[in-house]
Design goal:
Distance between the termini: 64 Å
Radius of gyration: 25 Å
Largest sheet: 9 strands, mixed
Shape: globular
Number of strands: 16
Number of helices: 13
Strand content: 15-25%
């Protein structure tokens, strides 16, 4: 089919930026138990915004430009923090500082969900195996996650919040891996008997437009496949439950946590477009309707089983960028023109270890493991983002990631190495509350430095014109290599003073031996569930009782000690 015959779609446009305002998008990468670190970052960031805008309302001498958070995109644990933001930002919730007295519940939904509630001891229960007729859905018991989700949906605070820096609606976009897949057919000329070349898309996402009750609801900011979420959050609200279900589906780590079922209108996929170059280099949005089979695409909902969105898109940067810029738009990148910024929050920004080099030294198990890793990493590789990251003149994208002085006095720890959650592929944070407490406070500390020293734009940007020439505010400016910069989110009041304290490295906070009886109990429950329909097989039981279980327990114990020891946590 010639390009001129392609069916055209109306591009989704975005409203013009408000005057003197930076529009923001948060892209929350997958993090497993590193979600506690991301929660700490968000806790400090929202507190900084509160202090700044409250100081302005009181007439204090502080910067007078504006910011507007328009979208939060998330993958895996990032989606959980996205839905927690959508819930919490409606209220004036308390913040957790290094000196905060921590009880069973702090009233801070980020801290309570990630530090106080989620723990490996609950995940090693067996409530999910109570019904022998149900298949085994995950290695860990995911029912505690449902209980936490219900608790968070019921979160409230006596004082509602007024946050002019939060858009209404606030867009939430969560990635999922769609195991059913969406079929497409590519037509080629030359073989009319064949309908075309079939493809199946598995990288998927779910969009929500949350009424934040901050001013009027601006319905113009809408994609066709968005679900509108309005009204108070509570477990009985179908709108809010849909958002939480999407976040749980996005964070369903394959095999480890229970997969989730998602239902949505068939028409959601009919609305999707791809941007292709047209005549004269003009980009054109073209609809790509799925090739549904007979009887599909009409009645009822499209249903699919979903797992971890991070398996296909662990860094949902493009979803946030497109929300700000529109289908065909491009956010200005130059320092004196930038008005839309995407902030990537990535607890594990480092690349994975390289795969095998010598064929003669690689066995079949290693090659298959390397293939899985290569598939995952290639799905996340975006060369255009690499190119932009190398350009120091780009001010439309920033990233915050873990960093702390080494506990052993060596080189500074960066990325996952700086987190107590960094061992065991990001799962170690689930082992001890002390690990998660450390990571939460480190997130606050890192965010304070990020806002003060990194999230800066040249002071020549006209958005700063309302205050940058005021001598009374010169203390907010920084001169770097002879150029003057101003903060996008200035630190004022309680966030401006001394740096957040460095949390002590939680060495010795976890005893491997104390966990092994729970590991054995979970293994035994899984064994019973797996063999429930086998009948009386004495040989199978004998092998499990005297060899297999003992072998697996030994592997788990050695793996825990090795991984935690390498991180200096034992």
């Amino acid at each position: 089919m010639p390009d001129t015959e392609l069916p055209l779609a109306r591009p989704r446009e975005t409203p013009a930026c408000r005057p003197a305002t930076f529009e923001l998008g948060f892209a929350l990468a997958g993090a497993v138990s590193g979600g506690a670190y991301a929660a700490g970052v968000l806790d400090f960031l929202y507190e900084a915004l509160e202090h700044w805008y409250e100081a302005r309302a009181q007439g204090a001498p502080v910067p007078t430009h504006d910011v507007l958070l328009r979208v939060i995109s998330g993958a895996s644990a990032g989606s959980i923090n996205g839905v927690l933001s959508a819930i919490a930002l409606r209220y004036r919730f308390p913040h957790v500082h290094p000196g905060t007295a921590v009880t069973d519940s702090t009233g801070n939904p980020f801290y309570d969900a990630w530090v106080k509630r989620i723990d490996i001891r609950a995940l090693l229960g067996s409530a999910d195996l109570a019904d022998p007729a149900r298949p085994i859905m995950s290695l860990l018991d995911s029912t505690p996650l449902d209980a936490i989700a219900t608790e968070m949906l019921g979160y409230s605070h006596p004082e509602a919040a007024t946050r002019p820096y939060i858009a209404n609606p606030l867009k939430c976009v969560f990635t999922v891996t769609n195991l059913r897949g969406v079929p497409y057919m590519v037509q080629f000329k030359g073989n009319p008997e064949i309908p075309g070349h079939g493809m199946m898309a598995h990288s998927d996402w779910l969009r929500f437009a949350v009424d934040t009750e901050q001013g009027g609801y601006e319905a113009v900011w809408k994609y066709p496949d968005e679900r509108v979420v309005r009204g108070p959050n509570h477990p009985g609200s179908s709108h809010w439950q849909a958002v939480m279900d999407a976040a749980l589906a996005s964070s369903a780590f394959p095999a480890g946590l229970r997969y989730r079922e998602v239902a949505r209108p068939w028409a959601d996929y009919d609305q999707r477009v791809v941007v292709v170059p047209g005549q004269g280099g003009q980009a054109t949005p073209v609809p790509i309707p799925p090739a549904w089979g007979d009887g599909e695409g009409a009645q009822g909902d499209y249903r699919f089983v979903a797992v971890d969105g991070g398996a296909m898109d662990n860094e949902p940067f493009e979803l946030a960028r497109t929300e700000l810029a529109g289908t065909l738009g491009r956010n200005p990148r130059e320092g004196n023109r930038v008005n839309r910024i995407v902030i990537m929050l990535d607890p594990f920004p480092e690349a994975e270890a390289p795969g095998p080099v010598e064929a003669a030294d690689t066995n079949i198990v290693e090659s298959m493991a390397a293939l899985f890793g290569a598939w995952k990493q290639q799905a996340r590789f975006k060369p255009e983002e690499v190119a932009l990251a190398l350009d120091t003149t780009v001010y439309s994208r920033f990233m915050i990631a873990p960093s702390r002085p080494a506990a052993d006095g060596g080189a500074r720890w960066i990325g996952g190495r700086a987190l107590a959650a960094g061992a065991l592929g990001g799962f170690s944070g689930f082992l001890a509350e002390a690990y998660r407490h450390h990571d939460f406070l480190l997130g606050r500390r890192n965010c304070q430095r990020f806002l003060a020293e990194r999230l800066l734009v040249p002071a020549s940007n006209p958005i700063f014109a309302t205050w940058v020439a005021n001598p009374a505010l010169s203390g907010y400016l920084r001169t770097i290599d002879g150029e003057v910069f101003a903060p996008v989110i200035p630190l004022v009041g309680g966030c401006q003073g001394l740096r957040e304290a460095l949390p002590a490295w939680p060495r010795g906070a976890f005893d491997v031996d104390s966990l092994m009886p729970l590991v054995e109990g979970r293994m035994q429950a899984l064994y019973k569930g797996a063999t429930a329909t086998m009948g009386g097989r004495f040989a199978t039981w004998l092998a499990w009782r005297f060899y297999v279980k003992r072998l697996l327990l030994g592997i788990v114990s050695r793996r825990l000690r090795s991984a935690l020891g390498a991180f200096g946590l034992l």
